Amino acid sequence: MSTEAQSLSPTPPTTGELPKQYRPIEHEGRVWQQWIDAGAFHADPARVVRGEARPYCILIPPPNVTAALHLGHALNNTLQDVLVRAHRMMGFETLWMPGTDHAGIATQAVVEKRVWQEEKKRRTDFPREEFIAKIQAYKDEYEAVIIGQLKKMGCSCDWERQRFTMDSVCVRAVREAFFRLFRDGLIYRGKRLVNWDPVLQTAVADDECYDEDVDTSFWYLRYPLVRAHGATTEKERAQGKPPPDDAVPVTWSELASRGYPGAEHHEGEDQAWVTVATTRPETYLGDTAVAVNPRDPRAKALRGLSVELPLVGRVIPIVEDGYVVLPRSMARTEEEENDPKAEFATGFLKVTPAHDQNDYELGQRHGLAMVNMVSPDGRVSDKHGWSDVGDAHLFVGKKMAEARKLVVKEFEARGLLEAVKPYRHSVKHSDRSKAIIEPYLSDQWYVRVTDRRMAARANAALVPEQRTGSPERELGADCRDSVSAAGAPTESARACARGSLSDGSMRFYPARYAKTFEHWHDNIRDWCISRQLWWGHRIPVWTKAEQGDAATLNNAHSQWCNLRGPEDVAVRCFLDGREVAESDVLTGGTLTTHACLLRDDPRTAAAFESFGFVQDPDVLDTWFSSALWPMSTMGWPDPPLAAKETGIADMPALLPAYNPSSVLCTAREIITLWVSRMTMFNRYLLAGGSPSGLADSATSPAGGGGGCGPVPFRDVFIHAVIQDGEGRKMSKMLGNGVDPLDIIATHGADAMRFTLVHMTTQTQDVRLPVKKDANGKNTSEKFDLGRNFATKMWNAAKFAMEKLQSTGGTPVPPMPGGARTLPDRWMLSRLASGIEACNTALANYEFSEYAQTCYTLLWNDFCDWYLEAIKPTVANDAGQRAVLRAALDTILRLLHPVMPFVTEAIYEQFGRLPGAAVEGLTLEPARKQGLLATAGWPIAATTLKDPAAEAQFAKVAGLVTAIREVRAQHTVPFKRKITLHIAAADAQALGEGAALVTGLCNIERMDPNPPAAASVPITVEAREYRLSNLADVVDTDAEKTRLARKIEDLVKSQGTLEGRLANPGYALKAPAHMVQQTRDQLESVRAELAAARKAMEALEA
RNA sequence: GGGCGGGUAGCUCAACGGCCAGAGCACUCGCCUUACACGCGAGGGGUUCGGGGUUCGAAUCCCCGCCCGCCCA
């Protein structure tokens, strides 16, 4: 599906004529090849660096190599191409940087599935390198498909610069970024709960999960109460001291004496219990406490007591925490009462810090131990973090679902299962494997994005007017003085803070998305970047852990200290979990040493390995490399080396020329995943400034404090998401997706592009009703809009060119500014407004507006009116031919960004036609090979705007429409010539327009006298005209119907207008011009009504 | 739970305090008019989700409610 495979048709003879019909498939391949051959899309950063041209740059959101592109990609890339092509024509040195993303988990999962289907083998049945090679092959295959699709769409990327997130240039960027962040303490290793996919056996990010309701139950388990009897504390036991074997049962009577409400209802000498409600009984093996709300009336009586976990025998404390939901009977506030969990709550919560996010946090608050009772494949295990198995060994090795049944059974057998209630709630599932996500305690690498140098600076990148963050919270050091003594910021402090809140120039379109961006950073949590995968950037850290006394550790430490090249290796040491500085003298304990290697140097790695260091087996989250995209694609951190490696000699000029880039175009869910991270990384890692010092002057210096790097892009445009006709996301599963290639095949690339651009309004979703075509493929009637429009463009050009050719190819003489005809002045005026509207729309990312402006300009103005108007005269009017040519040229240029193929194919012939300059309209010639893609964007002088011509033309059009209406009403055949009776003065007032009316309405003659025979009256702008010779007999009934209807309409609007004027407040408070306008309208409506009534009377007489 | 967006003609969308609320598709009528039937000309079709309020004036601004969707927790 490469370019070469596209069907190429030979360049047609340069006749200046167009074939009868536009068939996209006959042109797209050839036109594409012309662009490529001419290097039309190749950017020259040197021109920017030398100050010869202004830069315009877009970084493609790199598509995943997982699968072919869908319609959302088509939209995303079409919009980028529109911007890129328009700016290229405007004279910017324009770079659209292409590339693809390795999409770690998604790609690996697809290949694992494929290998399983084909070979019935798992990833682990292959050596790591071998399996990676399989993924690599898959990537090559799909990358080619994707790039082929982009080219078919017409994407004018600088294809020579194409990057891949795992190519050697990008790998170096990842390595450098990781190294610096590690060295600066912004990357750390932590034990946290992650979303664990037990099938893929990896941690997955929140956005790789989905929620789904599951029917399950609440199980009510009784935990016997005991008194720990002064034995070891929880902390002591965590340190390896055995649990107390002298736990003493607590009886109901004892509880009663402690004031426990309801204890008296139980048999006094029986052992008391508390009942926990849980949806996951099997996790009781990992319980390390039972929590009770301090407001619970039972809490006081339980203070200091413990429970003993059945079978396990573990004695765990009862802690008090406000997080615990009170049962509905104890609810005090409405909110508590309405908490759906209150219905199921017992007031006692089993706390399993290693298997539940909320419990984890509760555990942190109370310093509870963490017991992990699951192995990575989702089975109960006694090898992954607990030893006090006791009688619970019967659960070991069971899958979680089996273990659940067994636990319930065992509790029941012991009379400890109090109840089971059905319950439905949402449970996290893995996108990739559909498995239920297990919260899992494990060692992971994190980026400390909560650091001020990260999230806060991302927010500060926003332009001040898009900052809404609270100054109280984020007051910069500079502004603290202005805080009043009471601590409340003064007004001036707020203003100052708003300034200090922003040192950037990044702007969201639509602006509301700035809030999403800010909110994300205000609530951000550290970013887990390790993934237990094989496909991706391997984490460049080698680790060694050893135990020993002070001498041993110090000795070992000094050995590998010698291995470091100071710039190449960053070492961080942790003694019993606490970081120790290099200079510290070590005491005895457990020393964990992490060595991060900057370069992929096998000798250094081998040296560390010889001391027992082992490289981390995990790879980085895909977004880590994506976050570097604005830098890595431009050769950072070593552009000269990248240039040498890739053969792209001008690589070193890219960063200074194109970072910050102009705009990022993406969908809204990407704001948090990608936009945020690119912003944080660009600002942090480029803090030293761009190599040549050409960095963005608005963003880099002073304000940032401590050297803050540039924003990665000035604008962020968030476009709509395409849904099907029912408002559902398009997806493979639903089978409602539309394949861009199918649309291109049936409608042409331009048709698809135009339709997509036309759909792109400022809303967050757009719907595309989907239906099956004759071949059973998904399509949508909406694409007919684009196809019809492209055809219209083609035919209009064909016609215009025929008229231009009719002179036998002799050059059209220059057009003097003065003596233009009415249609010419009108058309030029419309063009001037059209250009202005397109410019505004594009500058504000109002794509639909741009498409609609082009649509109206071509179809309504140019085709319906202008071409029709000039038909009788253009052959004999050289000046008119000059305007015709210029008008078509302008429209081709305005439309090129959205419909590049058809416009270029037309220009191929049209460009050779002789022309003449039209004063006031600047149409710079093509810069490369006569290609429209490199021609200048049209510029119209404001003098071309001609309100008088527009008014005069509107008058003509009004009369024409009125006459056509009568013709249609009376079904006058098109070819029948009719007579217009028009007073001499009115004909005079029409001026040039009189001839236009004659031509456009097929009027035989204008007669200043009243008609002798049957006629029909019409009124336009309160002037009265008559039409005769309509037919052999005028249908008076039809005419009466028409008039009656017209009178009805006029009466209605007369009433509206009179009512408005009768309102006393209106004349008083509304602006004068508005009142005058209403008066004028009323006057004209009255006159028209009088005329219509008169006509009716005449008809009835 | 918090935040955001949306509800306008049969469908997809405009109209951002001021034309009689518009366009394309679909529909009706008439046209193979020598660029185009993927076309030309004409036409029908709307209680702008419901209820209050502000205003000379509200689809538009404010409040309440209903419905749909998205994001974050």
Write a structural description:
With 1101 residues, this protein is α+β, with helices and mostly antiparallel strands. Among the domains are: 210-428, Isoleucyl-tRNA Synthetase, domain 2 (Alpha-Beta Complex); 468-500, no CATH class; 540-615, Histidine-containing Protein, Chain: A; 1035-1101, Helix Hairpins. The protein is built from 36 helices and 36 strands. The strands form 11 sheets. Strands 7, 8, 9, 10, 11, 12, 13 and 14 form an 8-stranded mixed β-sheet that branches. It has a 5-stranded antiparallel β-sheet with strand order 21-20-22-19-23. A 4-stranded antiparallel β-sheet has the order 6-5-15-17. α25 (749-759) packs across α26 (783-805), α26 (783-805) packs parallel to α28 and α28 (847-870) packs antiparallel against α29 (878-895). The relative contact order is 0.09. Residues 1-9, 470-499 and 690-705 have low confidence and may be disordered. It binds one RNA strand of 73 nucleotides through α16, β28, α26, α28 and α31.
